[in-house]
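Fold Annotation — chain and its backbone

Encoding — discrete vocabulary of local shapes
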Amino acid sequence: MIYIRSAIFNFLIYFLMPIYGLLGLPFALYSREGTYGVMRAYSHTILWLMRVICGIDYEIRGEAPDTEVVLAAKHQSFIDMVLIMVALPRPRYVFKRELLYAPVLGLYGARIGGIPVARGKKGAAVRSMVEGIVKQQKADGPGQTVIFPQGTRVAPAVQAPFKIGVWKIVDTIQVPCVPTATNAGLFWGRNSFLRYPGTIVMEFLEPIPAGMEATPFMALLEERIETACHLQNVEAGYPEGRPS
């Protein structure tokens, strides 16, 4: 039965994306708030379908930031971006430049002030990312810059390095960093067709203030995120991640 439920759900999330995108286009082109409205409508629909079809609920823990911050989030699944969209007032994502040319995603990501980054260019990519964030900060006012510090989706309990770019952003724009943990990959895996029932947790952790040196900042960020993710995995019954 899980295969049938997963197949129906997977079809619907991609079938509905262009429908919401096209029907909401006038609102998205009219204003940024209209863009957020369309994206949140789609996100809430996905969360409802996820619960009804797949038996997956979600829980937001901690204090969701509503001021200017850098949100350094664990990235395990597409659903991470959906939960961030419904939890935060004005998220703007750092995303790979290729997504600018993706139907619907590219347009809407750009309309909310997302910052595209050319992956693989290391130092040049980091400089471009920081410059883009500073530009958006001046143009848009307060918002939550969302970055996935490991640079890609990482399965639960799998170790992957945290990249220095998040510190460079915090050090440049001098705002707090909010570490964010999740166990989403236990139920919606990065390369898995199946959607397992359970409760996805997204947890906003204690902010890290600006002004720290790079090495202690990165160590503290990784420790807070990985510790919280491990505790969430233990709570869900999968301390080492879901067996493949």
